[in-house]
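Exercise 7 asks you to align residues with tokens for two separate proteins.
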Amino acid sequence: MHAFTSKTLRNSLLTAGLAAWGLLVVSCVTAERAVVAPPQIAGAKYVGTKQCAQCHADTAEHFATASHARLVAAGTKALDTGCENCHGPGSLHVKAGGGAGTIINPKKSPETCFQCHLDKRGQFSLPHTHPVLAGKVSCTDCHNPHEGGAIRGRSAADLESENDTCTRCHTAQKGHFVFEHSALREGCTTCHSPHGSVNAKMLVARDANLCLRCHLETPTAPGQIMAGAINAEDHASRLMNGTCWSAGCHEAVHGSQINNHFRR
């Protein structure tokens, strides 16, 4: 009887704790505007987005469409602090007439972004990443926090794919190819994890396991289908020597101008 009572008490406390946490989360979201703790600047106060727009009209023009525009700093619900959630309170910046050193510049360091995107800090610590922590690449090279869904080159009003963001730098993978790998149509993140991966080339899976996520079955003869592309050419033994895109096989994985099997 005592054991049952203790178990019941533990379950009750757990349920109560989860309920309290749920209320806390709900209380941090008002009218779809998440409450955040933005970076601080000693001696500065919040001035509001309208004040920022007086000088930065080109940036503020489409800011209302941005997912980041839904943020509001804790304790400032009466003031639209959209810009200041990432750049810090702007009174000193306004008083100085602009200028470096009076406002936070997220381009200089990803730490501002990591205040909300904690999972991305962990991903950039994985073995294979874009060199953001080394300062060679900035979050804003790929993301535009001032418009739409924050993907650079892809606003809320257009139909560009994520590939257009990636191929701004990775031009060799852009194509057009005579023989296109259909995976490109589904987007670069079908195969790559852009914030970091334990696998080389930031792949979402390693070796042939990546390819076999899509290429599960290959016809080997009329009426015969073998799983995992194990056919008369003995792919099983070939894969022991490397991946699908090595060992002199399907090296042109993004597409080829000369071979429909993506060989160079």
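Second protein for Exercise 7:
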Amino acid sequence: MTTSRVVVVGAGGHAREVLQILLACRQIGLDVEPVGFVDEATWPDGATLDGVPILGGLEWFESAGQPAPEAVCAVGTPSVCRSLATRVGARGVRFASAISPSALVAGTARIGRGAMVFPNVVVGPGALIGDHVALNVGVTVSHDTVVGSFSGIGPGAHLAGNVTLGTECFVGMGANVIQGVSIGDGSVIGAGATVLDDVPSGMTAAGVPARLIGPASPMPLDRRRPSRRVRT
């Protein structure tokens, strides 16, 4: 069997966690080889991150060799992930999914290409997880729920059964969405919110119970804090 060479696109905290998923998959015997990080920031020659090389910018794929590597766009902000995935895909690169060995995914659930399923996630029967979705640590997605492509679900958030989440949505840490609720494209659910009613596209809902508080930010994770990136 040919080993799957996988490149992590991005080099922030989210990307480092995705690397750990790939390493865990390799540790249990799956044919996965994490090649390194591709990142458009400026790095010194020979730089590594968590013991894995920084390969360069997106142009690296043009000289990547064979077998052709696959990519995971490991960026937590939905709009940025979509932009990167579009640019990477335009280079003819295929996408791999990163699914933690400790995740519990029902046999009738479907996971899209480029999706990231972190440790201790539960995906119920009939659930549909779109392309490039990030299900962070401890997320639950119950039966028959649909999570649209490029959406990000924060650690410990819970989506009950028959929820519909649009594309490029962001659900904050510890939020809860009750059964049957629909959340429109590009909407943001605040951390710790409890969503009892449908949320229109492009809006932010927060609180317990959740209320609409204004338009959604395209950068819901931007806390304007200095980078803590560590070069090793």
